[in-house]
Amino acid sequence: MSTDISTQFVIEKVKKSRVSTVDFETLTFGTVFTDHMFECDYIDGEWKNPTIRPYQPIMVEPSLKVFHYGQAVFEGMKAYKDDEGQVWMFRPDQNQVRINKSAKRLAIPEFPKEWFFEALNRLLVLDKEWIKKGDGNVVYIRPFIFATQPEILASPSNQYKFMVILSPVKSYFRSDVSVVIAEHYSRAADGGVGAAKAAGNYAGQFYPTNLAKEKGYQQVIWTDDTTHQYLEEAGTMNVFFRINDTLITAPTSDRILDGVTRKSVIAVAEHENIPVEVRRITVKELVAAAKDGSLKEIFGAGTAVVISPVKSFSYDGIDYPLEKPKDSYATFFKKRITDIQYNREEDPFGWRYKVNADNY
Ligand SMILES: *Cc1c(COP(=O)(O)O)cnc(C)c1O
């Protein structure tokens, strides 16, 4: 497959780009899509017909398995343009491995690595005008797979669609968030699908998150499903706690998604000699640290926002506010990681991936 993948791709370009009709200053996250999309079908036991075509609706039957049994997984990635106009991705190999890991857990066939990269590279080259230079401008990349067999028998689908859509994003200044620690609901359970980027994981957290929002909080920090004593993650982000100068984050498990940003924060911390502990941390420890003043920071880490500082957490009806320290780790990691993403700084980790137009 690796020798002739380019020739297997069918490419239908738009007659006229829509890029000049878009106001890039007022984009709302995930609402505008670029000119092209990628589509590939799994039929008769193999992935076939990799195609790039103009972004458009897809027509499907109401009996499609994904609607009834939720076999769907996705990824979230970004593409960046540096000041010279070169386009980059950040650790895309990680997302490629992860979407297949997620797929496997949902009984979805794995998607070939070569096609994954070919699809992303080609799309980003075709739609490169949609990626604007400058900090905060990115194209968000959404690869996803869903069950397309038109049948409502409760069994794994024998047909799937792998697609990639691209959405230009402008990240605005986002204020720090207040979070509530989960005491009743759970996002994931041992032996479940919490470690997969499964669509249904999100559906399950919307209701408890709405309850938190009604009380004035923006997000929930999920705890383990049996005791609600261990701090786990923040729904769309992994979560870090800074006690004195030590950074603490929970180890990944069945219930915690193995985030690329989380991994990158740990690697940067190790590189910078910032003490970092990957271990379980209890709500009790957090509350005690908040009370004695040793809790300096909490922040979420995920592709969409990179680092999201937390300004207060609530537990058992009590709010614990946090004052942002002068030497904020959140600020440091955000800058360090985005500088690598936008090719503004050295990348000692080898994380940047050059999207190469020369191949096409
Ligand atoms: C995607 C996601 C994250 C963050 O992962 P990144 O690879 O850093 O974007 C964290 N938790 C959950 C539940 C997620 O779905």
**CATH homologous superfamily annotation of the largest domain:** Aminotransferase class 4, branched-chain amino acid transferase, N-terminal domain
Cα Rg: 21 Å
Q: Which regions are unreliable across 5 or more consecutive residues at pLDDT < 50? A: none
Overall 3D shape: globular
CATH topology of the largest domain: D-amino Acid Aminotransferase, Chain A, domain 1
Instruction: Indicate how many domains the architecture comprises.
Output: 2
Q: Mind explaining what this structure looks like?
A:
With 360 residues, the chain is an alpha+beta fold. 24% of the residues lie in helices and 29% in strands. The protein is globular and about 65 Å long. The relative contact order is 0.14. The chain binds pyridoxal-5'-phosphate. The site of pyridoxal-5'-phosphate has 14 residues, from helix 6. Pyridoxal-5'-phosphate (PLP) binds next to helix 6.
Task: List its traits.
nine-stranded mixed beta sheet; D-amino Acid Aminotransferase, Chain A, domain 2; 360 residues; 2 domains; alpha+beta; D-amino Acid Aminotransferase, Chain A, domain 1; binds pyridoxal-5'-phosphate
Outline of the structure:
With 360 residues, this protein is an alpha+beta fold. The chain has helices spanning 5-8, 65-69, 92-105, 113-126, 199-214, 260-271, 283-292, 329-341, and strands spanning 10-11, 36-43, 46-54, 72-74, 77-81, 87-90, 137-147, 160-170, 177-181, 219-223, 231-233, 238-243, 246-249, 276-278, 295-302, 306-315, 318-321, 352-354. The strands form 2 sheets. Strands 1, 2, 3, 4, 5, 6, 7, 8 and 18 form a 9-stranded mixed β-sheet that branches.
